Amino acid sequence: MTDRAQPPPATFESLGLSDVMLAALNLAGYQYPTPVQAGLIPRALTGIDVVGQARTGTGKTASFVIPILERMQLKHDIHHPQALVMVPTRELAVQVRDEAIKLSAGRKVHCVAVYGGKPIREQIEKLRKGAQIVIGTPGRVLDHLARGTIDFTKLKVVVLDEADRMLDIGFRPDIERILKRCPQERQTLLLSATVPPPIAKLAERYMHNPETLNFSPKDVAVETIEQFYFTVDPQKKFELLVRLISREKPKQAIIFCRTKRGTEKIFQRLSKKVKDAKIVAGIHGDMNQGARDRVMAAFRAEKIRFLVATDVIGRGIDVTTISHIINYDIPAFCDDYVHRVGRTGRMGREGVAFTFVAPDEGYELTRIEERINRLLKRGEMKDFDPSASPDIARVPAAADGSPGGEAAAAPPPPPSSMLRRPPKRYKRAL
Q1: Domain range for residue 143?
Q2: Interval 101-121: pLDDT, tens
Q3: CA distance linking residue 46 with residue 52, whole number of Å
């Protein structure tokens, strides 16, 4: 039986884009649209409201920037923004602004990013000079509205990017206040990795008969990413990190820590271990915005090879040269794991992720595996003793092959302070 011929990939020309936009895409090196772009751009060009479900690293920034630019009326007064893009973090605001500037080649379009951590007077001056596109975090956008330094009376398009993340970090009240200040006759595009009930309720309340497009694969783990875990005592983590870096020789790596203090500590220690301390940097929420911007600019320029970070860059940061992700601390939430690992393997490239798991963190590992419906492979490091305590056997998978199946016999609890508690049945231990 012969295989069916695969349909040819979509082209930007087939999406009905203008010659100016096609030239800008060619200049930016964009050859073919990603599935998200091929699906969302034609619908957004019609002016309808769209809820797009897609993980980061799939080209979704261009999928809403292109329709905005194509539908923009450039003869209008630039002092009245025509498009507003709301994002959860400062870094993402800068990234979206840069993408909009890149894709606006050949057009006289003014883009301004507004976010906290930078003097508001500088942003007020830029807005006073005029901007057709405003990209910002909800808190700072609301601040400008309260000061009367931004006018949304002629707004045509509103984009909520990484909507689930904005709600996670408490931006919902700010978002609702802003949407109430926007014209009723507008187009609203909502992009989110997941669409939980709060997102669906937001869409129902503030969007007009939105069309839902789901570009998320059933398997939330990126297929091109190899994923491993190491059993290691907390005291031995740094030694394992140094040896892992020496063995893997990553092109670029992000080392995720759970706390700002831990991030700074590992950054300082790692800087002393590598030959050139300039290729190591740290980034976390206690740094001022100028320092964070410089670190991210150097990382994108590949001047920094190892970036030690908190989850402040766990979402939305698009650096295609990242080859390795190392979870020095296992993330507190399963979705944080998905987004951390999603920093590598972007746009179909291959990547590797390693997660360090302490002996009493077996349950957290089980939850991650259930979330991604995939077992992480056990990592081994030659001539390295990760712990003085004996390792605990892996719990067999369920009959259907899914992770975290019931074991025939419960393994003993890990040798820790947990021994003082009543015995538990562990679904997955190390």
Answers
A1: 13-214
A2: 999 999 989 999 999 888 899
A3: 15
